[in-house]
Amino acid sequence: MNEKTEFFSYLLEYYANYKNKKTGEVLKEWDSCNITQKIYDSFWEYHTQRIENAFEDIDSLIATGEHAW
Fold first, then answer.
1. Could you give the dihedral angle defined by the CA atoms of residues 25, 44, 46 and 69, in that order, rounded to the nearest 10 degrees?
2. 46 Cβ contact partners less than 8 Å away, ≥ 6 residues apart
3. For position 1, what pLDDT does the model report?
């Protein structure tokens, strides 16, 4: 598993915990909002910041389809 994929898995697990949901539910939501690839592609931004910043951005992607930053 490459570093990007490993971080994506980590982010998915921690975001699911943050939302008190199962990882499968979260991934299904991301897929239904067509944001999974955007989240995956944001590796460089997300892994250099606080995890809460990534959560805020993901919430923005879900709500608006746009990054918070």
1. -110
2. 7, 11, 39, 53, 54, 57
3. 83
- Considering only the C-alpha atoms of the chain, give the largest distance between any 2 of them, rounded to a whole number of Å: 31
What is the arithmetic mean of pLDDT over 17-36?
Answer: 98
The residue assigned the tokens 């921690």 is 14
Q: List the Cα angle 42/60/26 in 5-degree steps.
A: 75
Crossing angle of helices 23-32/3-18, nearest 10°? 100
Integer Cα distance of 21 and 19 in angstroms? 5
Q: How much is the pLDDT for 13? A: 98
Enter the tokens of residue 19. 């939302």
- Are the C-beta atoms of residues 27 and 36 closer than 8 Å to each other? yes
